[in-house]
Design goal:
Blueprint lengths: L10 H9 L3 E4 L5 H10 L4 E4 L2 H18 L2 E4 L2 H10 L5 E8 L17 H4 L9 H8 L2 H13 L7 E5 L7 E5 L4
Parallel strand pairs: 1-2, 2-3, 4-5
Antiparallel strand pairs: 4-6
């Protein structure tokens, strides 16, 4: 009774168009999230974004469209969510600092990398994650993607983003204001 059923590759875009949600949470993994984000921004006033791939793949295009439709975009994933909260009401920012554990390879000299087995790479010293993200962490690829994400979400130049190896993994991210606090 009154239930709408959609299916197919564009089903998310269809349901966004039908329901026109005021708030949309985009947590689709991979490149698909870009299409969902672009659809949501046309009708939603606020978008909670947990899909870094859409930002990494669509950066300039995505934020050009965000300026056109003007939804509030809130990062809802770990490091970027914390930075977003630290920046509320602040305009004098010197630096955004993302931390990285360094992964399973952080203490291995680079000249020993050739003999590293997949088992060693998959032994993250701090976190228990899936294989792909563990490898992305060990190679620092994930942090590179987070730098791109921060560049676009916070509209800063890459030079304002620093990555610090923090083996204890207590702090995920920080902001340094121009007064050095």
């Amino acid at each position: 009774n009154g239930c709408k059923i959609v299916q197919g590759r564009d089903s998310v875009e269809k349901i966004i168009e039908i329901e026109k949600p005021e708030i949309a949470i985009i947590a689709t993994s991979g490149f698909e999230g870009l299409k969902h984000t672009l659809s949501a921004m046309k009708v939603s006033k606020r978008i909670g974004l947990a899909n870094k791939e859409s930002i990494v793949c669509g950066g300039e295009l995505l934020f050009k469209e965000i300026k056109k439709y003007n939804p509030e975009v809130i990062p809802i994933d770990s490091e970027h969510s914390a930075i977003f909260q630290l920046l509320i009401g602040e305009t004098e920012v010197d630096e955004i600092i993302l931390t990285a554990s360094g992964g399973s390879l952080r203490d291995i000299p680079i000249d020993e990398f050739e003999g590293i087995s997949p088992e060693i790479v998959l032994k993250h010293p701090t976190w228990n994650m899936g294989k792909r993200i563990t490898i992305d962490s060990a190679t620092m690829l994930n942090k590179g993607l987070e730098v791109i994400e921060a560049r676009w979400i916070f509209d800063v130049m890459p030079q304002m983003i620093e990555v610090v190896i923090h083996p204890q993994s207590i702090i995920h991210s920080m902001v340094e204001y121009t007064d050095h606090s």
